[in-house]
């Protein structure tokens, strides 16, 4: 069954933190609660959980892939078209090192870009409830939950003193 989303808008951060506390008291998990703000608050300011990331892994994987492709490309080329020049070996390491270095850097850069997109959850294919006042200084607390618990989420957001509560099937709703 599809999840439903609700968004509570608060003028101050304390009310938003109270909303997060109310939601947690109603047994909503950290994965169901999302804080939206145009102002940079310190991580954990609203009692939300720390979101870990694995961005540092992507460049290493990309570098290993790029190095492997560079090695296979240079080996394959020199073995497929052997040119013996002045009694030198067929496999020449200095030109191979340049190609492998370039392949390593290219792989690391491309995988880093892919990692940034992946960790940022971009592009966002699933739209959810949003309000433009968040960019004007409001703090939004968004909850995505099962339909059976949706009324409890709305009550928790309203009890914290939300200036406005929007939800996903409201007519005229702005979504992102």
Strand percentage lies at 5-15%
Pick out the low-confidence regions: 172-176
Arrangement of strands in the largest sheet: 2-3-1-4
Class per helix and strand makeup: alpha+beta
What number is the mean pLDDT?
89
Q: Spell the H/E element sequence.
A: EHEHHEHE
Straight-line distance between termini: 21 Å
As a percent range, the share of helical residues equals: 40-55%
**Count of DSSP H/I helices:** 4
What best-fitting shape do the alpha-carbon axes yield? rod-shaped
Largest sheet report = 4 strands, antiparallel
What radius of gyration results from the CA coordinates?
Answer: 26 Å
Number of strands: 4
Give a written overview of the molecule.
By secondary structure, the chain is an alpha+beta fold. 42% of the residues lie in helices and 13% in strands. A 4-stranded antiparallel beta sheet has the order 2-3-1-4, covered by helices on one side. Helix 1 runs antiparallel to helix 4 and helix 2 runs antiparallel to helix 3. The longest helix is centred in the middle third of the chain and has 27 residues, at 93-119. The radius of gyration is 26 Å and the shape is rod-shaped.
Short recap of the structure:
The protein is built from 4 helices and 4 strands. The protein is α+β, with helices and mostly antiparallel strands.
Architecture blueprint of SSEs:
Layout: E1 4-10, H1 13-25, E2 33-37, H2 57-80, H3 93-119, E3 139-145, H4 150-159, E4 164-167
Antiparallel strand pairs: 1-3, 1-4, 2-3
């Amino acid at each position: 069954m599809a999840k439903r989303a609700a968004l509570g808008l608060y003028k101050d951060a304390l009310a938003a933190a109270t909303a997060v506390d109310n939601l947690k008291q109603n047994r909503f998990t950290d994965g169901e609660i999302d804080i939206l703000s145009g102002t940079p608050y310190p991580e954990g300011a609203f009692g939300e959980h720390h979101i870990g990331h694995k961005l540092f892994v992507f460049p290493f994987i990309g570098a290993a892939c790029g190095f492997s492709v560079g090695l296979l490309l240079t080996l394959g080329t020199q073995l497929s078209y052997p040119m013996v020049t002045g009694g030198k070996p067929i496999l020449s390491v200095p030109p191979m090192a340049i190609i492998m270095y370039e392949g390593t850097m290219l792989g690391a850069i491309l995988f880093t870009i892919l990692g940034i997109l992946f960790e940022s959850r971009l592009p966002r294919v699933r739209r959810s409830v949003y309000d433009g006042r968040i960019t004007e200084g409001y703090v939004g607390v968004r909850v995505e939950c099962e339909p059976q618990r949706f009324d409890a989420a709305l009550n928790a957001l309203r009890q914290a003193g939300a200036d406005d509560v929007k939800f996903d099937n409201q007519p005229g709703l702005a979504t992102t």
